[in-house]
Amino acid sequence: MYGSMRSLRKSTLFMSALLGGVIFSSCASVPSPSNQALPPSSADRAASINETASSVSQKAEAAPAPRTRAQLIKKASMTVIVNSVDKSIDSVSQIISKQRGDLIGLREQQPTNDSSRHTASIQLRVPQNLLEPTLEEFVKLGTVENRNITAEDVGDRLVDFQARLTNLRKTEANLQKIMDRAGSVRDVLNVAQELSNVRQSIEQIDAQLKNLQNQVAYSTITLNLEAAVSSTSPQRAVGSQIQETWNNSTHSFGAFTIGLLKLGIWLMVYSPYLLILAAAVYGFMRWRRTHSLHLTQTPESADSE
């Protein structure tokens, strides 16, 4: 009886130990729910924020900066062969007026010999947005021999001038405040000298800035016009020269005849005044002759007595 009870106790203990080991192993293998539910620490949050900021910064650096519109100084030159330089100059004047441009200079050269041609060089400026339309108008004048367009980007120079001008104006304002607070005459004179130098620099940079802006706003065109053939005609044939001489002589004879007829008409119209004048002269001459004769006879009569 006692032996069977002992065996039953041992079996119970063994089963309890076995169940406890199984339960312990199961608990050990299951992950702790507290570890999964723990919120991220502040260090983890800072690292995440840093990574996000770094990513955004990298994206911002990788993204290209918006490109500003180029500030270009455009210059064009064109040579056109025309039939008549004089008529083309008049047409160019009309085109300039139409395109709201300005004529800067005109140099015209007449032919000096048989081999030279009538040429003209015209310098003008037009608004930059009307450069191409103006050139297209010049193309219609004749045959284009050459055409050239150059452009220079001065955007960096404009930005530099504007920044320097802004800084100088700030310096001017600060110097003005210092001058207002200056006590001694020496300090006032020193500040006034510096202020004068700054204002002189402002004027120079402002003039350069306006000059660049004006060159950007208006494009310069150099237009060269050349006559298609020499305006001096070659030596003509003898018959042609004789014919021209005959025509000139007959024309001169006709003009001389007409001139005589006109003179006769003028004399006819003014004949009353001419007759009066002639009668006055004749009467004066006759009176003078009679008076001279009378004076001559008087001494002779005195001698005879």
From TrEMBL:
One Pfam family this sequence matches: DUF4349
Region (Disordered): 33-63
Record keywords: Membrane, Signal, Transmembrane, Transmembrane helix
Keyword Signal: yes
Signal peptide: 1-28
InterPro entries, A to Z: DUF4349 (IPR025645)
Bias-annotated ranges (Polar residues): 49-58
Ranges where the DUF4349 domain occurs: 71-285
Residue ranges of the TM segments: 263-285
Entry protein name: DUF4349 domain-containing protein
UniProt organism field: Nostoc minutum NIES-26
